[in-house]
Amino acid sequence: MKSLIIIFTITTLLGCDGPNKNKKASAINMDEPSGTIAFTSSRDGNAEIYTVNADGTDLRNITNHPSFEYSTSGSPNGKFVAFYSNRDGNSEIYLSNTDGTDVKRLTDHPAKDVLPSVSPDSKTIVLMSERDSLSR
Question: CB neighbours of 59 closer than 8 A, spacing ≥ 6?
């Protein structure tokens, strides 16, 4: 048991390289933020998907629906937002343009489909579903 603890400690210490001296905070340009941020907020009474420019301008409620919308995942290419909503009576995955137009339901199943995540190449959306009584 003592040797197991020593091996674990050595392995843990080997993984700690210390501070990375190559990274400099000055390399990060915070003067000119760019892009769009998508997020969920209940600021208007129920959970909605909002977008805002990275500089804080142009806040928009892009779902504006009486149901609840959650768990937004913006596409890295900036063209669309995936989210889940119960707007049709069950938690399903939806997709819309970042301005809120062209909303499409992607799933249609009695089980809950939630937590969409857009792949780095913006070509695939993964999600968690409670189909077969298991969350996968």
Answer: 50, 51, 52
User: pLDDT exceeding 70 applies to what percent of the chain?
Assistant: 72
**The dihedral of CA 86, 39, 56, 101: what is its sign?**
negative
Are the CB atoms for 122 and 82 separated by under 8 Å? Answer: no
**pTM, two decimal places:** 0.71
Q: Per-residue pLDDT for 25 more than 60?
A: no
Q: How many residues does the chain have?
A: 136
Domains of the chain and CATH, by start: 33-133 (2.120.10.30)
Closest Cα partner for 117 from 77, 62, 74, 78? 74
- Determine contact, residues 105/88, Cβ cutoff 8 Å: yes
Phi and psi angles of residue 132, each rounded to the nearest 5 degrees, phi first: 60, 25
Structure tokens at 74: 């913006």
- Distance (Å, whole) CA 127 – CA 104: 16
Cα 24 → chain centroid? 28
Q: Is 133 helix (H, G, I), strand (E, B) or coil?
A: helix
**Tokens of residue 94, six digits:** 């939806």
